Amino acid sequence: MSKIIVKDTEINVVQINEEDYICLTDMIKAKDGDFFITDWLRNRNTLEYIGIWEKVYNPNFNYGEFAIIRNQSGLNSFKISVKEFVAKTNAICIQAKAGRYGGTYAHKDIAFEFAMWISPEFKIYIVKEFQRLKAEEQKQIGWSAKRELTKINYRIHTDAIKNNIIPAEVTSEQKSFIYANEADMLNVALFGMTAKQWRNQNPDKKGNIRDYATINQLICLSNMENLNAVFIGDNMPQSERLEKLNKIAIQQMRILEDIEDKTPLIEEKNN
After folding, report:
1. pLDDT digits (tens, 9 = 90+) for 103-112
2. Which terminal CB of the chain, N or C, has fewer other CB atoms within 10 Å?
3. 220, 252 in Cβ contact below 8 A?
4. How far apart are CA 155 and CA 218, in angstroms?
């Protein structure tokens, strides 16, 4: 469940079968005067558009029932609810949901057309806000992917510790201390503090220091974990590894930040 704000109106966006559906019930709050979704659905132009959309995306659409509904759309007495329309035609572009976030939801393609019934200005702003939402989601996906990569590399890192640092016979508590000690060495090299120091400075935050890292920091951390595994295999002392990894972290972060600073200029030049 996501939300966008359009013209002071909060609008829910949900995923249905991995597609984005926007709440028409929320959108209608931005319309002046009495207006109902059924008024929009009974319009012939609306039905024509929905019919074409379903033909392209829905192989199970019931064209026979749809044709009957479309032919009735010119009559003053014609009226149909969303639930009735979906039940008769097996449409997928529009859904009536119950529960806490209930209401009528439509696939984004249909919702943008519905926005025109509210106003052309509203449609422009809802498209703009929706695009902003998807851009933010892509950034989050990128961050999550880097976080998962760091976790995978952490497994490589801990295997190197297990095979090269941990003595043959130690207690579980001692093993945990060695793992944490090596992880904190990387934290100090990159973030300048241990996990415990970060928690003491941020008592109200959930998670750990790495959950609040930037994408560039996660990239750097991933590289450092791989390098530390190699250094451990070469029997390099921890103090020497710390100094070496700290210098690498400084160098890589400068490069990554420099690339990030230049990216907008490159994009502007290409446009």
Report:
1. 899 999 999 9
2. C
3. yes
4. 15
Contacts of 43 (CB under 8 A, 6+ apart): 73
d(CA 175, CA 181): 10
- 243, 246, 220, 231: which is closest to 165 by C-alpha? 231
- What CA dihedral angle connects 83, 88, 91 and 97, to 10 degrees? 20
In angstroms, the CA 271 to CA 268 distance is 5
Report the alpha-carbon distance of residue 129 to residue 151 in Å, rounded: 33
Residue 219 is encoded by which pair of tokens?
A: 């990239």
Tokens 């093993």 correspond to 175
Concatenating the DSSP letter of every residue in the chain gives -EEEEETTEEEEEEEETTEEEEEHHHHGGGSSS---HHHHHTSHHHHHHHHHHHHHH-TT--HHHHHHHHHHTTSTT----HHHHHHHH--SSEEEE-STT-EEEEEHHHHHHHHHHH-HHHHHHHHHHHHHHHHHHHHHHHHHHHHHHHHHHHHHHHHHHHHHTS-SS--HHHHHHHHHHHHHHHHHHHHSS-HHHHHHH-TT--S-GGGG--HHHHHHHHHHHHHHHHHHHTT--HHHHHHHHHHHHHHHHHHHHHHHHHHHHHHHHH-
Hey, what are 254's tokens?
Answer: 């400068």
Residue 191 identity (one-letter amino acid): F
